[in-house]
Structure formats: structure tokens, C-alpha cells
Amino acid sequence: MSETIRLTAAQAMVKWLSVQMTEEGVRFIDGMWAIFGHGNVAGIGEALHAYRDVFPTWRGQNEQTMGHAAIAYAKGHKRRRAMAVTSSIGPGATNLVTAAALAHVNRLPMLIVAGDVFATRRPDPVLQQVEDFDDGTVSANDCFRPVSRYFDRIARPEQLLSALPRALRAMTDPANCGPAVLAFCQDTQAEAFDYPVAFFEPRVWRMRRPAPDAGELARVAEMVTAAKRPVIIAGGGVIYAQAEASLADFATAHQIAVAETQAGKSALDQDHPMSFGAAGVDGSAAANAALQAADLVIGVGTRLQDFTTGSRTLLSDGAKLVSINIHGYDAAKHGAESLVADAKVALEMLSAALGDYQAEAPDAEARKDWLRAVDAYCARPEDQAAKPTDGQVIGAVQRATGVDAVAMCAAGTMPGALKLLWKPSQGGYHMEYGFSCMGYEIAGAMGLKLAQPEREVICFVGDGSYMMANSELATAVMRRVPFTVVLTDNHGYGCINRLQTLGCGGEAFNNMYVDCAIEAQPEIDYAAHAAAMGAHAVKVAGTDALEAEIRAARGREIPTVIVIETDARDFPGTGLETSAGAHGAFWEVAVPEVSDRQKQRDRFAQYLSQIANAQLVN
């Protein structure tokens, strides 16, 4: 008879999580973010307290932003480590649904342990219980089902014996990686069970590296050798597979230009001669010209979403498409020839199969022209009293930081500007743009700094995103997590205002404060607000002052918030305007077919001609 240990279900979960290890000998789940409430304080809260010396607990301010911090931590570790988040049974759980969706879209691991209703149903309906009039098994946690990679409801203590390994298996599977959700009934958390001692033996989770099918590899190698002007699109899968060096070697050996997605940016150092910059809607002139002239496009670790493909209009009609991806679902998109494999293994095996093949040399002058245009657009403005453009802000930050700096962001104006203008060293870029979630930035900066304490983390956030979620600044102050926030204040949602007025033919409405139905224009002192949470905060005028404050922030052990007002009108790389070496591709946003305004009718006619070029391939 096997030896057992009697524990509550919640104690067993925490004890088991504390011994799940990486190949490097550290915990895979590096602790749990927690806001306690009805449904998790008694069971999970007691268990986390009991094991606090071996499995840390951190208190946040909002369940969603705790999730964002956990996601950024996993992204910063290239999916090799993760964090858990626990919530109460009602609004605490539903607050986490957005974070789960963000992790799901970005293929990033996170463990969500959400309190649930009573398994016995004896006291139903309990506080915060969502009742389905036609289905007695439903709770608020069922909202997680479409945005989780693994979902389980724990209604018996012994169910953990299978549920926990399944959850970790999903989180560590490079193809199916994403959030795992355990809806943990609150009475079950406190119920005891005799667990096998062997269940708590340390376990090492290894990331597999699948090799490509021989037939697929041969077909792709034949397509590449037949191509004269191939171009690579590097996605986040390159970074998650730790294939950066393999990509650089492949591009150099075979003389193939590399364009990049938001998730793939910084897989190559910007100084690499084959790095042609951003692809697609927010793309560089060099990258998009190369893609439009390509006879073969090789996607590596990319979902090929609409910003990258210009809503399926960017690639020339005659170009063929190869997609190297660890998941067959992604590899088969847009009618691509699939090469299903780990990116690092695939690039190395494909390179060997290509031998001494070299493509026609990409246009080095176009690359230089683009970089010169970026430098000019980001140059120090002569008039330091005028509001700078977003590009001038980026230039100032770039000049004030070193090679270890990581620029991070998520939504609004800055993602497109940074993708085009930021010149990173390898690994110097962290963008959440799969879900483009406003409010990710500050919590994400904290999670990223926890993952990469040796790097300088620069968080770019607009006033709109700051207003949506800023409270984890207080957490970062409490935990002494230093990073620098560059808060660009354009007095509204400048990015969407441009899309509304320039992209869709609409009139300015409800985005900039001046265009809203309000009784008085707001005068928000963001520096005072950040300082009230304990951050070092200052408002500056001009890029010279911004540079000085960026440098001064390095000596602090708390977050620094630097507020600067910017010109909302000037923005490169949207596909709406052309500047800074940008050559934005078409981005399909539906335009109203009927309007009493001529501007709107003209824009719809233009929209019809643009969508006629879309390549409707599955």
C-alpha cells in the first residue's frame, strides 16, 4: 500500500505547484498573485499561507492586471517560466477573463485558479453566484472556456491528481501553450484527502522541439531553392523557440531579408544587415517593398494576422507562401505550404538542405534609406518648447538608453510607432499586440522587470491606457520593482481618432476630450497621481528634459513616471499617412456603405477598390 499524506485540496495544489521544476532547476510556476475574497480566502488563502516559505504569494490591486503581470513574466522568460493568479468566485473571476484572452491570443502560459460555487450545492445560491436558469452546472467561471487552453472544474479533492498535470502539460506544450484554468469549488478547497506521497515528488517539465516531417522539409527546400527573391517574416515563435541565432545564421548564409511582426521584433538585432524592419500595416518602406517584390514569403513562428499581411493584400499575386510553425493550425493559414516544427530545428535543418543556395541580394540601399528616414524622424527637435511627436519621444528615449533597454507597450499610438521606429538590440522589444489590450502596460512592465531584472525596462503608455489601468504602480512600489514609464499625454484616444477620421471617413467624435460630450475639459495631473501611489513622478517639457529624466531613473529602486505632452496629429506607419520611411499596407476596417456625408461616401468607394485586392485564401 502506497504511503499517503492527508491534506486539504488547496494545500495539495500549492504543495504540488511548489515542486514543478524547469530544466534549469527552478520552479516553473514562480508563485501566485492573489486577491482574496469570497470563494478563495479560506481554502486557497490558508494553503498559500502554510507554504509561503516555498511558494510565494503576491498581492496585487486588480485581478486583470495581476494576470497581465503574470503574462509579461512568462513572455519575458520566453515561456520557460510562468505565474499563477487566484481570484474569488464572482467579479474577481470575471475580471480575469480579459487576461486569459490575452494569454490565449499570444500563446503564453498562465495558471488561473478561480474560486467557484459549492460542489455540494447545499447553500446555493451563494454570494456572487451566477445562476443559469436552464443549466445547474454553469457558474461565472464558464466564461473562461473559450479563452483557455485547458479548463477544469475541481469538485472532488482527488481530481487534482489528474487535473494539475493536465494543466501544466498544456502550459508547457509549445504548440498548444496558453492559459490553464482551474475552477476550484470553495468547499472542495477545504476538503481533506489522503494523497499519495509520490504525487509530490519534484517533476521536471521539458519543452519539446519537434523536427519537421521529411516530406514537408523536402518540398519547402525545393520551393526555396527555386525562389530568387524570398523574404522571411519572423514572428514571436522565433523568440519562444530561442531560435534568434539560428534565424540570423539562416538569413546570412542564404542572403534572405527578414521582416518582423510585433511579436517577432528584436529576434534580430537592428544592426543585422538582413534586418529590414517591420512588416505590414505599420511596416517600413524597406520591408514592405521587399515583400511586394518577393516570389516566396517564408513565415517563421507567425500567426500571419491582418496587420502583418495587410489584410491579405500585401503579398504579390504570384508569390508563394511557406509557413514554419509549431502548430499545424497556424502553419496552414492563407494556403501556405506547411512546415510543422520547432522554429530552431526547422531553420537549422532547412539551412542544411539548402546547402550553398543564396537568394538575390536584397536591396541594401532601401534598408539604409529607411534607417536614415527613421533617424531624421526621431531626431532631437530644435524647438524644445513645442509638443514633440511620438517619434521624437521615441528618439529621445533611444538616445538616453543603452543596449540592455527593453521597450514595451501594448495599445494605442505607440505600438505602431515603436514597431517602425525603435531600433532594438536582440531581445530589446516587448509588445503585447496580439490582443492589443489597453491597460497591459504598467502591470506588464512590472512582470517583465521581475523576469529580466538585469535589463532596463521602458514602458511606453498613452494617457488613455494609463487611465484604464494604473494601480499596479502601487504594487511595484511596494515590491521595489524599478522600471521607467514614459506617459505620452495627447488628451484622448489619438490613435483611434486618426482611424475614425482618416481611415474610415468619419468625423472626430468621442475620442479626443475636445470632441466628447462633457461639461468641462479635464485637467489631469498624471505626475501627481503617480506620485500619490509612491512612484517618482515628474512632468517634463521637451525631449532634452525627457532624456535627462530617463538617465536619472536608473539609480532608483522604485518606478519612475515621466509625463510629456505630445502632438496627436503626426503618426507614421498607420497605412493612413506616409512618413518616417513608412510604407503602410492596407488594413481592412469596415466603412459604412450608406451615409449622408460626401466624405464618408468617397471613403466607401475607396474601400471597395482596396478590398478587391484581398486574397481570400483560407
Automatic annotation (TrEMBL):
The keyword Ribosomal protein does not apply. Residues 217-350 form the Thiamine pyrophosphate enzyme central domain. One of its GO terms (molecular function) is magnesium ion binding. Gene3D superfamilies: 3.40.50.970, TPP-binding domain (3.40.50.1220). Keywords: Hydrolase, Thiamine pyrophosphate, Transferase. Residues 55-128 form the Thiamine pyrophosphate enzyme N-terminal TPP-binding domain. InterPro entries: DHS-like_NAD/FAD-binding_dom (IPR029035), Myo_inos_IolD (IPR030817), THDP-binding (IPR029061), Thiamin_PyroP_enz_cen_dom (IPR012000), Thiamin_PyroP_enz_TPP-bd_dom (IPR012001), TPP-bd_CS (IPR000399), TPP_enz (IPR045229), TPP_enzyme_TPP-bd (IPR011766). One of its GO terms (cellular component) is acetolactate synthase complex. CDD domains: TPP_PYR_POX_like. It comes from the Bacteria. Residues 412-564 form the Thiamine pyrophosphate enzyme TPP-binding domain. GO terms for biological process: inositol catabolic process; isoleucine biosynthetic process; L-valine biosynthetic process. PANTHER family: 3D-(3,5_4)-TRIHYDROXYCYCLOHEXANE-1,2-DIONE HYDROLASE (PTHR18968:SF9), THIAMINE PYROPHOSPHATE ENZYMES (PTHR18968). Belongs to the TPP enzyme family. This is 3D-(3,5/4)-trihydroxycyclohexane-1,2-dione hydrolase. It comes from Thioclava dalianensis.
